[in-house]
Design a protein that fits this description.
The protein is mainly alpha-helical. Helix content is 48%, strand content 8%. About 4% of the residues have low confidence.
Length: 168
Amino acid sequence: MKRKCDRCARPATHHSVEIIQGKKIEKHLCDEHASEEGLAIKSIHTPINELLTNFVKIHSSGEADQPTPGGVCEGCGLTFAQFRKDSLLGCPDCYKAFEQPLSTLLERAHEGGTHHIGKVPRRAGAGEQRQAMLMRMRKQLNAAVVGEDYELAARLRDDIHRFEEESS
């Protein structure tokens, strides 16, 4: 059965599902209403800069009531308002200059993840060994939780926290 647009009687051509604060929100929109919400896809291969621009606009639209973070990047002179408009940072110093608002955007983009858990470059040497040890400890923690050995899981959790603090 074909769905109709949530706002009119035309057939829905754009379907999206969002989970906001644990609630599932489904949208079924026609081309016209989808484009009004910024959901219309212009081509099969949308350039990454367009995707990032749309992402920043969508996720910062609820923050319009809040004051725009002040400051200017000392390295290139970029303001946060310019970044929000263009979705492009000017230099590596921008990450420090806009650390707080960028971290909020990155957390949303990575579903709350703020720490890299992937591979470590070979040239990192000792860091690679620490990363491997941390991965082993996390696997043990997961196994303890699955096996419902909560005392061991609590000890491993505390060991992981200590290990991460020592790494920092």
